[in-house]
């Protein structure tokens, strides 16, 4: 029995990497994105392209959804030309969008009513690990859904955490990851901005901190974007406006204080309001006045 055909909806930095990893591992892949040129680039690599999620869903046993937010999930699944109407019962959706946990829970119920399985399976690792099939997947869902998706998950991820049978748990764990990621990016930007203001050589500062206790994965990954003056989006400022907003809403629902999250969220909002929302999330450093940031190389 051959490998199942997998559909990938959304070919951004993460979805594009997933599609590449699936193709590299010999899966038949159908792709869909709002940008026809991007779809064509994957067709040139051996994928099948389609103009609508419905066209993709008609012949795929497994769908990986990697769009931006819940509104886009609604559109690609249930909107005009949406995938759900064309899915056969038994199709499995790997929902890898960062979503509010309660939305993920309700989405699994809605799909289940149509005989469609869902893994609540957000991902982490960034563009580079997506392209090499080394992402981390934090997933929850039924044993049947995991069994159907095992080979696909092995192709796209280095680590797959099975977090239980109920949708929503994966999204809860991803929410905590995004809290830390957003705070670490904001803190890294603030630290570099102060270092530059104080007269430290930013390249030397990066080297020293990267080998000292104050470092973090995000510091080592994002600060080079600042040093290179390169704000081409791998993950955009607007993503953290959205993701930290999810965290804050969850905190509000639990009546739980999140002061660091709130401060970081305001920093990303400031960057977005200043016109940097579509730039790399390292562009949050641009909110600090009176400093001269490194120029593009």
Write the layout of secondary structure elements.
Layout: E1 6-9, H1 13-24, E2 29-32, H2 36-43, E3 48-49, H3 53-57, E4 62-65, H4 70-78, E5 92-95, H5 101-112, E6 117-120, E7 123-124, H6 126-132, E8 135-139, H7 143-156, E9 157-162, H8 169-197, H9 202-210, H10 217-227, H11 237-253, H12 259-276
Parallel strand pairs: 1-2, 1-4, 2-3, 4-5, 5-6, 8-9
Antiparallel strand pairs: 7-8
Helix pairs in contact: 1-6, 8-10, 8-11, 8-12, 9-10, 11-12
Low-confidence stretches: none
- Output the strand order for the largest sheet: 3-2-1-4-5-6
- What is the CATH H-level superfamily of the largest domain? NAD(P)-binding Rossmann-like Domain
- Residue-averaged pLDDT, rounded? 97
CATH topology of the largest domain: Rossmann fold
Provide an overview of this structure:
There is one protein chain. By secondary structure, the protein is α/β, with parallel strands linked by helices. It folds into 2 domains: 6-167, NAD(P)-binding Rossmann-like Domain (Rossmann fold, 3-Layer(aba) Sandwich); 172-287, N-(1-d-carboxylethyl)-l-norvaline Dehydrogenase, domain 2, CATH 1.10.1040.10. It is built from 12 helices and 9 strands. It has a 6-stranded parallel beta sheet with strand order 3-2-1-4-5-6, sandwiched between helices. Strands 7-8-9 form a 3-stranded mixed beta sheet. It is globular, with a radius of gyration of 20 Å. The N and C termini lie far apart (51 Å). The mean pLDDT is 97.
């Amino acid at each position: 029995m051959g490998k199942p055909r997998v559909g990938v909806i959304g070919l951004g930095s993460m979805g594009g990497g997933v599609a590449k990893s699936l193709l590299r591992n010999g899966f038949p892949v159908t792709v869909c994105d709002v940008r026809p040129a991007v779809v064509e680039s994957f067709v040139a690599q051996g994928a099948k392209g389609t103009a609508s999620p419905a066209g993709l869903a008609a012949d795929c046993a497994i769908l990986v959804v990697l769009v931006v937010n819940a509104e886009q999930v609604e559109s690609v699944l249930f909107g005009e030309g949406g995938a759900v109407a064309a899915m056969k019962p038994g199709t499995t959706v790997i929902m890898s969008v960062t979503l509010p946990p309660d939305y993920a829970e309700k989405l699994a119920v809605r799909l289940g009513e149509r005989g469609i399985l869902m893994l609540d399976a957000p991902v982490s690792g960034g563009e580079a690990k997506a392209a090499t099939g080394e992402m981390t997947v934090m997933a929850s869902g039924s044993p049947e859904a995991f069994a159907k998706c095992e080979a696909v998950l092995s192709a796209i991820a280095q680590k797959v955490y099975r977090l239980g049978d109920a949708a929503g748990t994966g999204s809860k764990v991803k929410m905590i990851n995004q809290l830390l990621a957003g705070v670490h990016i904001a803190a890294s930007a603030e630290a570099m901005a102060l270092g530059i203001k104080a007269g430290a050589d930013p390249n030397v500062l990066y080297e020293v901190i990267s080998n000292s206790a104050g470092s973090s994965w995000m510091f080592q990954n994002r600060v080079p974007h600042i040093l290179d003056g390169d704000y081409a989006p791998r993950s955009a400022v607007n993503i953290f406006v959205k993701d930290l907003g999810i965290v804050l809403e969850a905190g509000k629902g639990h009546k739980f204080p999140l002061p660091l999250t709130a401060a970081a969220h305001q920093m990303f909002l400031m960057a977005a309001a200043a016109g940097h929302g579509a730039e790399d999330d390292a562009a949050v450093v641009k909110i600090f006045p009176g400093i001269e940031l490194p120029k593009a190389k």
